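Reading group handout, session on sequence-to-structure problems. Before we discuss, look at one worked example. The prompt was deliberately terse, the way you'd type it at a terminal:

> structure DNA-binding transcriptional regulator, LysR family

The input record follows.
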Amino acid sequence: MLDRITGMRVFVRAASAGSLSAAARHLGMSPAMATKHVDALEARLGVKLFHRSTRRLTLTEAGNDYLEACQRILPEIEETEARIASRRVEATGLLRMNVPLTFGARHIAPLLPTFSERHPAVAVELGLTDSQVDLIDGGWDMAVRIGRLGDSPLQARRLADCPLLVCAAPAYLDRHGVPRKVADLTRHNCLGYTLSQAGHQHWLFGQEGDVRVTVQGNLVANNGPALVAAAVGGQGVIYQPQFIVAAALRRGELVALQLDQPTQALGGIHAVYPPDRRPPAKVRVMIDYLVEAFAGPAPWDLQGR
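And the output record:
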């Protein structure tokens, strides 16, 4: 019995080239074998897929429908086969991974000893920076990105949620009052993050970030922990990811403010890698490991661990 998947591949190639002989050359088989595969498909389906002439093949109506199905199904099969086959390949070599500074130091670096025990043939170069790097130009195998992913050919897997919180120290709130509405923030000393996509003078609220509040303060910085330290000292209000402020909240050094608008949905934390249907085993095992490590409540989840 002829292989059905091979028959589908012959059919798609013949439809594209308009010729069974061209399909046969591309797939490394004889024209007679390519013809047998298409004949077997037509016999199984009970319909003609091609109008055949001495010069060219043209699709029948049924052939057009079947082509659409094959073009959808075959890439899924090939991707699945590639993913399963890659598990047989030992992960080796240098893995260059770029990660945001604070997240990498707090939540990626502590995971690496166990990763190295599991995959001793993989060496890791951990690049820590809050600037978004170009993976291809920089020679990075993968990266961790926080926030909404823009249009990009990069492949991505979600690792965890990343809520934003508005926080201030109890001492600051005692002196200046507790903001109840996002509009109240215009009257407070708001410490700005200079790498924010909206800029440090605007804080965005609402799930889609469609509520814009203009803020001002006497400190801006390009580092979240620096802003946390200032806020803990009572200098002002900050708007930062939960993974940065969670420890200070647990210790009671900061209080999360409940306002009349939800904080902006930051878009989550993702592992990204170049667009390759078959990523190297070293990339695959690292991403699988991170997905496993962040499954369930994240370390910064205030309701979790």
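Points for discussion. First: The mean pLDDT is 89. Second: The longest helix spans residues 61-86.
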